[in-house]
């Protein structure tokens, strides 16, 4: 509590006079001191706990008084000083602002709130939030100035750390975004820019990336003309979702094209890709369907290396072609064989190849999801593109996906083609 | 990105199945748990021999999980041993069948020479 109230008590004691007055004075003074001491102690305790401190400047005595807590914050041991001395610890860069606020308060009694840095005697720099105002008596005369300072160093440090963390997170996100875009560009570059267009058969394929995932899958599809006029088809999935998976996908996709051009039989192509993969130093596993379609005889020959089974649509029914397949690629280097299956497509028949992202979700039974795919395919209308659009729309409407998806439909035209095309038209150009 | 949805737990069962160590795995095998699984099983690969993984408590496995199992098998096979799987749940059985890996690792059905203590 301010000292002048004690002085007021002393004055009251003196006015009473005499022995009783002396006793009364002693009592008044004792009570006042106890009250003052305990109130000051409580104020000091409160200040210490709250991390703030106060000062007051008595205009009558021109005395600056710091609370003990302020002395502790600033790192000085005195509790009484001058206004000028109070500014001595302000950071040199902030001193002009502090002085201006102080002068405004002294000369014009203008209150202030400002933040500045304070340099302790031990060299530590504190962030201080300070405010000050004039205190008037009943007649409106300014009798003293007082204010508080609040040590906000830890708070500001936490804020700076949070800003820095946010900046770094944003930087990391931006870097990942760049990587993601590069991967997507790579993935798109690996997918055929356009599919072979034949008169008697339609091929349609789609890659559905998972937009909310920063990483991408190693799923791909491919369709290309062979030198003998037949059409080669591939759908595959590389383990993993990173740059490595994308590069392995690119290698396998190109290896398939190279092997197929030399010797297109499905069993031979898959066996050679398996040997290639199993000899890579890292363990890279790939599942894949690869096949060759003859647009004259309408026969599809294909082999399966550990990949989900294809579907056949004939009339209004769709059937899973769960025929014997070979092991997924990359596990054992030699001796793995990939049985070949043959299927003649009638007018309007189609096959659907897909990657497991369309049926694989941990919250759904895979057999049930496969059955849903089969039904969606059975009732999908139209040509290859419409079939594909209808199936993907229906399957993707059924809740979230966890993985990228590739879908490929090969459909023989329903009506006999008006023009019987020459095989050379399908040859590699 | 790689925070496990459920914690992966690997416990070593007392006793042996056909003379091999038996580890029971609890959780989901995917990209988020692959490294944990590799780390937990690595000490049991060094000696080669037969290792049985009890998959009865594995509720989900994707291709990344499968790749980890293939990695174990290759390590063991190089030392003259091999990996065996015990009691995978239906969706994992399905995956092993599609990929043909059920022809690479012996897969024991639940109840068939139970590896439990």
TrEMBL record, chain A:
InterPro entries: Bact_Sigma-Reg, PAC, PAS, PAS-assoc_C, PAS-like_dom_sf, PAS_fold_3, PPM-type-like_dom_sf, PPM-type_phosphatase-like_dom. GO terms for molecular function: phosphatase activity. Pfam families: PAS_3, SpoIIE. Keywords: Hydrolase. Residues 112-164 form the PAC domain. CDD domains: PAS (cd00130). Gene3D superfamilies: 2.10.70.100, PAS domain, PPM-type phosphatase domain. This is PAC domain-containing protein.
UniProtKB/TrEMBL annotation, chain B:
One of its GO terms (molecular function) is anti-sigma factor antagonist activity. CDD domains: STAS_anti-anti-sigma_factors. It comes from the Bacteria. Residues 10-117 form the STAS domain. PROSITE patterns: STAS. It holds the Pfam family STAS. Belongs to the anti-sigma-factor antagonist family. NCBIfam families: ant_ant_sig. This is Anti-sigma factor antagonist. It comes from Planosporangium flavigriseum. The gene is rsbV_6.
